[in-house]
Amino acid sequence: MDIDAIHKALANPVRRQILAWLKSPGEYFAEQEHPLDFGVCCGMIDKRSGLSQSTISAHLATLQAAELIVPRRIGQWVFFKRNEATIRAFLESIHGDL
């Protein structure tokens, strides 16, 4: 776990918002055609955010580099889910260290 990469990823409010949306995908992405078990399609995140595809892709890349989300490619689509194991380990580390 790269604590510095996680802090960098969490320093941006858009990335924190994406993580919050992915925590309750049924609440925020119910209109997605594919099952939410796959994760949330990048296009759905673009649409909800109102930001450009390239901006959201950069945010998702930062979250992925910090291992806060995991991608799953199905055909031409990429779906994202939270990496609960990394999030839990990070929170435990912060709780224990501080």
UniProtKB/TrEMBL annotation:
<protein>
    <submittedName>
        <fullName>Transcriptional regulator (ArsR family)</fullName>
    </submittedName>
</protein>
<dbReference type="InterPro" id="IPR051081">
    <property type="entry name" value="HTH_MetalResp_TranReg"/>
</dbReference>
<keyword id="KW-0238">DNA-binding</keyword>
<keyword id="KW-0805">Transcription regulation</keyword>
<dbReference type="GO" id="GO:0003677">
    <property type="term" value="F:DNA binding"/>
</dbReference>
<keyword id="KW-0804">Transcription</keyword>
<dbReference type="InterPro" id="IPR011991">
    <property type="entry name" value="ArsR-like_HTH"/>
</dbReference>
<feature type="domain" description="HTH arsR-type">
    <location>
        <begin position="1"/>
        <end position="98"/>
    </location>
</feature>
<dbReference type="InterPro" id="IPR036390">
    <property type="entry name" value="WH_DNA-bd_sf"/>
</dbReference>
<dbReference type="InterPro" id="IPR036388">
    <property type="entry name" value="WH-like_DNA-bd_sf"/>
</dbReference>
<dbReference type="GO" id="GO:0003700">
    <property type="term" value="F:DNA-binding transcription factor activity"/>
</dbReference>
<dbReference type="InterPro" id="IPR001845">
    <property type="entry name" value="HTH_ArsR_DNA-bd_dom"/>
</dbReference>
